[in-house]
């Protein structure tokens, strides 16, 4: 049943309600001194950071195996988080529940080079309160040595071979060449430089690195994001592989295939499904080392040609740090360079006889070298 009240009674009720609201809100009478820094407005509380990350700063630099402190600060004295999780490089460092709002990241967590994410997440009333994140950079903890070389032998090399990949197996060299319409995979006799077998790629493909895994040869291409798996004995194609980056160099470490993409990142692939299982970022003590190209695994190190230079970086595969640079400047004398000869590229290793072979794109020679300290 609907009841009709006189209008003056409704108006009086509204006035009394407004007077009570004003009195209780503190707008009349004594005003309390509450600043924004002490307590946020209720409608803002869920959207405001409760914690400020004081240090380290964005892109702060550290050395490998260096511990560092994470210093936090409360944004509101009257709104304290229930807990704060500090996460470094994907692992929880500590969950802080009271003052002091700080913790240390131990040296055991800083054992690899590269850009690492530091994330701080505050929790209040069962809710995440705007996570704070920044990146830190970890450099090598050693100054790389500069290695020199001595030429042991030189052998003929096909000057038409735009060398992109190289490896040694059972007395023979296997070589991948690049350039559209010129890309191939080859089996080469070392002493004569004679090409014993050759398989040409489709004309649109630009061949890149190759490596041997068990009895199969893996080859990648530059920008097509497709590679191939061949039977070593026959060069018969067994499979195709796919990857999301450019393909540059390849090498094999145990049950993993390592690939470069022209950056400072090396990707570790599981060979059967060709999926990435880990990666490292390569740094020396001062900078990231970009343009990593052809790869070879030698005595526990990854050796990488640095594109457009005469240097090879010797890299620790567990940490990503550069142990040394091998300077091959002057290896191919200017008077022996043809107009088409390009940069140093191609490393192969005979682990039984400890022989290191290097060459370049359209070079007339393959060199056997020995590293001198």
Report on the architecture of this protein.
- This protein is mainly beta and 373 residues long.
- It folds into two domains: 42-139, Immunoglobulins (Immunoglobulin-like, Sandwich), CATH 2.60.40; 145-372, YVTN repeat-like/Quinoprotein amine dehydrogenase (Methylamine Dehydrogenase, Chain H), CATH 2.130.10.10.
- Helix content is 6%, strand content 49%.
- The protein is built from two helices and 28 strands.
- The chain has helices at residues 7-25, 42-45; strands at residues 51-55, 61-63, 68-74, 83-88, 91-96, 102-105, 114-124, 127-139, 145-156, 163-169, 172-177, 184-189, 195-200, 207-213, 216-221, 226-231, 237-242, 250-253, 256-260, 265-270, 275-281, 292-298, 301-306, 311-315, 322-327, 344-350, 355-360, 365-372.
- It has an eight-stranded mixed beta sheet with strand order 22-23-24-25-9-28-27-26, with no helix packed on it.
- A hairpin with a 4-residue loop joins strand 26 (344-350) and strand 27.
- The radius of gyration is 32 Å and the shape is elongated.
TL;DR?
This protein is mainly beta and 373 residues long.
Q: Compute the number of helices.
A: 2
Compute the number of structural domains: 2
Radius of gyration: 32 Å
Q: End-to-end distance, in Å?
A: 102 Å
Assembly level: single chain
- Proportion of residues in helical segments: under 10%
Percentage beta strand:
over 45%
Sum up the overall morphology in one term. elongated
As laid out across the biggest beta sheet, the strand order is 22-23-24-25-9-28-27-26
The major sheet is characterized as: 8 strands, mixed
Structural class label: mainly beta
């Amino acid at each position: 049943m609907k009841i009709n009240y006189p209008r003056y009674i409704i108006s009086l009720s509204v006035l009394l309600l407004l007077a009570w609201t004003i009195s209780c809100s503190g707008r009349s009478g004594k005003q309390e001194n509450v600043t924004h820094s002490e307590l946020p407005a209720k409608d803002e509380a869920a959207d405001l950071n409760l914690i400020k990350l004081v240090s380290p700063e964005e892109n702060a630099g550290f050395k490998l195996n260096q511990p560092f402190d994470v210093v936090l600060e409360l944004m509101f004295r009257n709104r304290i988080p229930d807990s704060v999780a500090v996460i470094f490089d994907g692992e929880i460092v500590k969950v802080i529940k009271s003052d002091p709002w700080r913790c240390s990241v131990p040296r055991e967590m800083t054992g690899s080079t590269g850009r690492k994410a530091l994330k701080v997440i505050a929790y209040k009333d069962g809710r995440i309160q705007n996570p704070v994140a920044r990146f830190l950079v970890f450099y090598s903890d050693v100054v790389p040595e500069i290695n020199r070389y001595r030429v042991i032998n030189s052998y003929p090399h096909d000057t038409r071979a735009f060398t992109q990949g190289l490896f040694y197996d059972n007395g023979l060299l296997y070589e991948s060449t690049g350039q559209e319409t010129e890309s191939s995979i080859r089996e080469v006799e070392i002493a004569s430089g004679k090409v014993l077998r050759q398989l040409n790629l489709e004309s649109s493909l630009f061949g890149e690195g190759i490596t041997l895994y068990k009895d199969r040869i893996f080859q990648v291409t530059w920008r097509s994001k497709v590679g191939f798996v061949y039977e070593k004995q026959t060069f018969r194609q067994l499979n195709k592989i796919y990857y999301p980056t450019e393909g540059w160099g390849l090498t094999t470490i145990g049950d993993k295939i390592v690939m470069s993409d022209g950056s400072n990142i090396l990707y570790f692939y599981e060979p059967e499904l060709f999926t990435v299982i880990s990666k490292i970022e390569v740094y020396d003590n001062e900078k990231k080392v970009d343009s990593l190209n052809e790869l070879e695994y030698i005595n526990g190190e990854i050796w990488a040609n640095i594109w457009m230079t005469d240097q090879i970086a010797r890299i620790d595969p567990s940490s990503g740090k550069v142990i040394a640079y091998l300077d091959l400047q002057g290896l191919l004398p200017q008077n022996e360079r043809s107009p088409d000869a390009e940069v140093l590229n191609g490393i192969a290793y005979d682990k039984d006889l400890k022989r290191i072979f290097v060459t370049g794109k359209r070079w007339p020679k393959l060199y056997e070298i020995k590293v001198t300290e």
